[in-house]
Amino acid sequence: MATTETIHHHLHLHRHHDHHNTINTHLKQKTSTKSTRLAKSLSNLLHLHIQGSAQKSLSNVRFEEKKDTPTTSPKEDISDKWRDMHGSSDWNNLLDPLHPLLRREIIKYGEFSQATYDAFDFDSFSKYCGSCRYNRHNLFEKLGLNKHGYIVSKYIYAMSSMKVPRWLEKSRLLENAWSKDSNWMGYVAVSDDEESKRIGRQDIVVAWRGTVAPSEWYEDLKRKLDPIGPHGEAKVEHGFLSIYTSKSDATRYNKSSASEQVMDEVKRLVQFYKEKGEEVSLAITGHSLGGALALLNAYEAASALPGLPISVISFGAPRVGNIAFRDELHQKGVKTLRVVVKQDVVPRMPGIVFNEALQRFVYITGSLEWVYHHVGAELKVDVRSSPYLKHRFNLLGFHSVETYLHLVDGFHSSSSVFRSEARRDLALVNKACDMLVDELRIPQSWYQPANKGLERNAHGRWVKPKRDLEDIPSPIGEEHTLVPEMENNFEMLEAL
């Protein structure tokens, strides 16, 4: 099961490539480890070979010209189209070709998902390893996401009841760590007045953090389905449910579960805006494991808040439950859009063999309670479509959020070439992997704190800096949330 411990452990491995090379490099080594053998066997099983495709030349791409252009297009008013963008018609006739307004919305939610990685403290020498590096008031400012017009109202912490997180075993400061059992798992945000006017409603967003090491998924998944819901027919993967629902009175950050934390905040915000007579929607996003948690969150929200428009926009998400789980989500009105990179193995897990393909044999297998099934509509993009990406086997690169967003930005239709007018900064693709062609001269895995987190003190010595008091994690009970009476005053909110 790819639990929270796997996430933190592999974020550390992934980011610190000076100690540990990328998965792609490991696959080239002659030493045959369990994970590399697994990756190669998965490649063969899933037919993910892409070496044979011809790499397009960049000679006619004119990359230099892109450096002097904006990274986004001007925002457009979608207030009269928001229900279509939110999936009211299951995105029929909007995905292939991809509607430009929908593309913008998908990228917006994808950047909210990426934020959960960019702000995560993966430093094993940090006292706060496993927390968010910033407080919720300046999270979007620090990450350059103020442009989207959302305000973070709540942080979410999670734990797993299954075993002690492995990432903690890698911490050099476990005895003095900020938390021995919990970690930062995401956040709740809400659109400000200007953005709400543009998109036609008050948009509540929940962003869940995921994992980045797909080679470990098969080893960690327990492949056990647990019942969810009142009838017991709908079942979901045991480990995902454990992360979403685990709590302990002995912890500082998980006296309430991630489920309870997020639902308390969503209910509070929905009630506040409905009492003001405003339209409200809930959008839940996540990458990898985060996409699985997003579906569990949507299932619970739809049960507790019937009639609320709820959509899930996930990236590289695995299967979560059985066909009954899928059907109940559909009956509850949850709209799900799964963005999938063709070469990514994680969306094929769990259930590489026992999946929705067996539905044609339902007269033999019965109700398929033990078979995993995907949910919702799918937008599939292909690494081979981009002239900027290396066309070689790279598990980590295929699964990266930034690879996903690059391909969505360049996708027009399944029958057309990569969009020449795609605007997202190409350098972002290599933040945490090695996917860009060498001609672009962008270093691999370049995203890291300056000087790896060390600063010079007044005596000129290099030391670990102390966090600002406002950026030190506070226990759940002490964390402040948005004051509803101040919701319409953005400046006052920022001063809270």
TrEMBL record:
Region (Disordered): 1-22, 57-79
Example of a GO MF term: phospholipase A1 activity
Top-rank taxon: Eukaryota
SUPFAM superfamilies named in the record: alpha/beta-Hydrolases
Keyword Chloroplast: yes
Ranges where the Fungal lipase-type domain occurs: 205-353
GO CC, one annotated term: chloroplast
Location in or out of the cell: Plastid, Chloroplast
Keyword rRNA-binding carried by entry: no
UniProt GO BP: lipid catabolic process
Start-end of Basic and acidic residues biased regions: 62-79
Protein known as: Fungal lipase-type domain-containing protein
Alphabetical UniProt keywords: Chloroplast, Hydrolase, Lipid degradation, Lipid metabolism, Plastid, Transit peptide
Biased composition range(s): Basic residues: 9-19
Family: Belongs to the AB hydrolase superfamily. Lipase family.
